[in-house]
Amino acid sequence: MVKKSFVGGIHPYDGKELTKDIPIKAVLPKGDLVYPLVQHIGAPAVAAVKVGDKVLAGQKIADAGGFVSAPVHATVSGKVKAIEPRRTVFGDRVMSIVVENDNYYEEIDAFPVKPLDQMTAEEIRERIREAGIVGMGGAGFPTFIKMSPREPDKIDYVIANCAECEPYLTSDYRRMLEEPENLIGGLKILLRLFVHARGILAIEDNKPACIDLLKELTKDDPRITVMELKTKYPQGAERQLIHATTGRLLNSSMLPADVGCIVSNVDTVITVNRAVTRGKPMMYRVVTVTGDAVASPGNFLVRIGTSYRQLIDEAGGFKHKPAKIISGGPMMGFALFDTDVPTTKTTSALLALSRDEVSEAGPCACINCGKCVEVCPGRVLPRKLADFAEQDNETAFLKYNGMECCECGSCSFICPARRHLTQSIKSMRRILLEKRKKGEIK
Amino acid sequence: MNDLMKVSSNPHIRSGLHTSHIMLAVIISLLPATGFGIYQFGINALVLIAVSVATTVLTELLFTRLMKKPVTVGDYSAVVTGLLLALNLPPAAPWWIAAVGGIFAILVIKMLFGGLGQNFMNPALAARCFLLIAYTPIMCNFDTDVFTGATPLAALKNGETVNVLNMITGHVAGTIGETSMIAIVAGACLLLLLGVIDLRVPGTYIVSFAVFLVVFSDTANPAFVTAHLSGGGLMLGAFFMATDYVSRPITKQGQYLYGILLGLVTAIFRVFGASAEGVSYAIIIGNLFVPLIEKITVPKYFGYRKQKNS
Fold first, then answer.
1. What torsion, rounded to 10 degrees, do the Cα atoms B91, B246, B237, B60 define?
2. How does pLDDT run across B119-169, given as a tens digit for each residue?
3. Are B131 and B97 in contact (CB under 8 A)?
4. Do the domain assignments include residue A424?
C-alpha cells in the first residue's frame, strides 16, 4: 500500500525514544494552581468565582465569554486565592484565577449521564461545550464550535489526528496505547454528530504498535478506518492531514468543514469521551516532559493549572544545564524564559534542550538554494516571503501568498544559511492578520 | 527573575546543514574533473587552478577587510568560483589570465553586487565571458603539448568527423575541466546523491538541448548528438553552473523553464552561431531571465482556489 502523505516536509531527529516506552504517570499538583482565562482561541472566559470562594475539582470557575470561547473548570478543591494577571507560556500576563489546593481533591458531582444512544446530537454538543473542551493539539479552538458546522449532514470524514508528527512528543502515543477504547469511544461519539461521516484514525507509520492495536479494536466497525501515514513533519498539520487522508485540498481561509471534514486531536477525542460518558469536564491532559537536559523524561497525566516547574521536578529535574526550555515541541513550541507558568488546556509537552541550535549559528547570506521551497507544505516561497517581510513589503507579501503559510517551521529548520525564515514570515503574518481584523486590508 | 532562559521564535531545532557544507560538496564533486584536467594537461593546468582559487579567495578576503564587512571566505563559495573559473580556462593560458578572471568574478560580479547570494550572474561564467571578449586569442587557443588544432566541436562545425569515444572519456582538446564527460558526470552523481542538486535544471537543459539540436541542425545521427552532448562544456555547464543556486530560479516550474531556455539558446549558438561553443553565453543569458521566470512561475499554494472562501 502506498503510504499517504503530502508534498514537502522534513525529517528532523524525533527524540521520541526518550519517552515512548514510559507509561503515563498521574501527577498530584503541589502549590497553587493557576487558571488563565485565555486558554483557547476566542473571547476570554469570565470569572464565575470570587476571591475567598471555596471550589471543588470539576467546578466551573469561569464562564465562556462569548460564542467562540470556553468555560474553565477547577482541577482541585480548595480556595480561590486571587484573581490577577499571571505570566503564561506566551510571556504575557493574562488574568488568571489562582486556587490554593486543599489537597482533598473533592470532586463536584458529574453532569448527569445518559446512555449514549439516548442522547441527541444537540445534547452531545451541549455537553462538549459545558465541559470546556478545546482543541488540545495546540490551537485551542473550542471543540463544540468545530463540532457544529452549518451543515452537519455534509460532513464525510471525522479524522482523529493521531499523527503526532512533532518531534519529542509522545503524549498522544501513550494515550493511544494505554486507553485506545476511550479514543475509539470518543470517535464514535463524534460520529453520532455526523450521520454520514466515516471515522478515520490517522497515524504516522513510526507508531506500528498503535496502528496494530487500533486496527484490531476497530476491525468490526464498518464506519472506522485506521490510516497509516508516512512519518514526516508536519504530517499532523490539519490541512496536510486532510489532504493525506482524503485527498481533499483546502487553503488557509477555509475550514475543514468546507471540504466535509472534522479533525480532532487524540487527547481531545478522549476528553470528549470522558465528558459525554462520565459527565466530567476537561480537567486533565497528558504532558510529555522530555529533552536531553531532563534527568528522567516521562509522560505525565497533569491536572490543568499545575506549574511547569513542578513538572520538571517530577521528571527528576535537570541533568544538564538547559539552554532552552520549550512549551510544546521543538518545531512549533514556545520558548519559555521562566518555568513559573501554569500548564493549560493546550500544553502538550515541556522540552528542555541542552543546546540552543538557533543561537549557535547566526543567519548568513541566503544562497537561494530553494530548500525552503522544497520542504514548504504550504507550497509558497519562504525565501521570498521572508525577504518581503524583512523589507516591510506588505503588498508583495500578500501577492506571493504569504497568508497561506502555516508557520510549521520547516523552512527555518532546513535553511543552510540559518535564516530565521519562519520568524520573519510569522511576524509579517501577525501584522497583516491584525490589519485584516481591523478591516484595513482584505 | 534573574537567570532567565533564552527565547526565540519557533522552530527551535536546525537541520545541521550549513552553506559551507554545500560548497564543500560542490568542491569535492569537481575533483574528478579537476584531477582529470591536471592529469591530461599537466603542470600548467595545476598552476591555473591554483592561481584562480587563490585569487578569488584573496579578492574576497581583501574586499571584506577593506570594506570592514564580515569576512565570508569561510563559506568556501569563493573556492567554488575559483575552481569553476579555472576549469573553464584553456590549459595553455598564461597564469595571469586566471588572476584577471578571478578578480573580475569576485570583485565585479560578486562583491560589488552585495556578496554571496546577490550576484545576478554566475561569477565564474561571467568572468569567462569577460576573458573571451577581452583576450580572445588566448581564450580560444586550445593548442597544448597533448593536442593541437581545433576542439572537437569546432571540427564538427567544419564538417569533419570526430572520435566520439575520446570525447566521452575526455581525450580531446578543450578547457581544463570540460573534456571528460565521465569525470564530470561522476561528480554530478555525487551531488545528486547528496541532494545538493536535482535533475530539474540539468535534466531539462540536456534533453531540450538535444531536441533543439536535432530540430535546428536537421541531423539525428546519434554520433553527432553524442558529440554535442559530451563536447564544449555542456556537461560541466549543465551540472555545475546552470545549477548554481544563486543565479537559477527558485521556483520548481521556473527551473524547468530555465532548463528549456538554456537548451534552446545553447542549440541556437551551436547551430547558427559563429563560434562552436555556446554553453557559457547561454547560461549567463539565462541568468538574466531569472527574475522574469520567477515572476511568472509563482507556485499555486496548497489548497489553491480560483476564488478564496469558496
1. 0
2. 989 999 999 999 999 999 999 888 887 787 778 888 888 878 888 888 888
3. yes
4. yes
- For residues A119 and A240, state if they share a domain: yes
Distance of CA A225 to the CA centre of its chain: 23
Q: Which residue of B has its CA nearest to A416?
A: B18
The cell numbers describing A130, all together, are: 459545558
Residue A189 CA to chain centroid, in angstroms? 20
How does pLDDT run across A281-303, given as a tens digit for each residue? Answer: 999 999 999 999 999 999 999 99
- Residue that finishes a domain, picked among A244, A278, A312: A278
Distance CA A90, CA A113 (A): 37
Residue A199 cell numbers, joined: 471515522
- Note whether B5 contacts A13, CB cutoff 8 Å: no
pTM of the model: 0.92
For residue A374, the chain B residue with the least C-alpha distance is B252
Residue A239 sits in a domain of what CATH number? 3.40.50.11540
Residue A312 in domain? no
Q: Beta A46-47 vs A60-63: how paired, if at all?
A: antiparallel
Domain with A255, as residue range(s), is 115-278
Please tell me the distance from the alpha carbon of residue A34 to that of residue A78, in angstroms, as a whole number: 12
Q: How confident is the model at residue B309 (pLDDT cuts 50, 70, 90)?
A: very low
pLDDT of residue B165: 87
What is the CATH T-level fold of the domain B19-296, as seen in this structure?
Ammonium transporter fold (1.10.3430)
What are the residues facing A284 on neighbouring strands?
A: A303
Q: Does B11 touch chain A (CB under 8 A)?
A: yes
Q: Is B19 exposed, middle or buried (0-12, 13-18, 19+ CB in 10 A)?
A: buried
Reduce the DSSP state of residue A335 to 3 states and report it. strand
| End-to-end Cα distance, chain B | 50
pLDDT of residue B174 exceeding 50, the answer is: yes
pLDDT tens across B84-108, in order? 999 999 999 999 999 999 999 999 9
Tell me which residue in B12, B246, B310 faces A368 most closely, judged by beta carbons: B246
Give the angle subtended at the CA of B248 by the CAs of B247 and B251, to the nearest 5°.
135
Mutate: best of A235, A252, A350, A367, partner B, most B CBs <10 A: A367
The CA-atom distances, in angstroms, between B252 and each of A388, B249, B297 are 20, 8, 8
- The predicted pLDDT at position B310 comes to 41
Q: What angle do CA A298, A204, A315 make, to 5 degrees?
A: 5
Stretch B257-268: mean pLDDT: 96
Task: Please give the Cα distance from B12 to B17 (Å, whole number).
Answer: 15
Residue-wise pLDDT tens digits, B61-79: 999 999 999 898 999 999 9
Residues in chain A predicted with pLDDT less than 50, given as ranges, are 1
Please classify residue A416 by burial: count the beta carbons closer than 10 Å to its beta carbon, then call 0-12 exposed, 13-18 middle and 19+ buried.
buried
Q: How far apart are CA B133 and CA B248, in angstroms?
A: 24
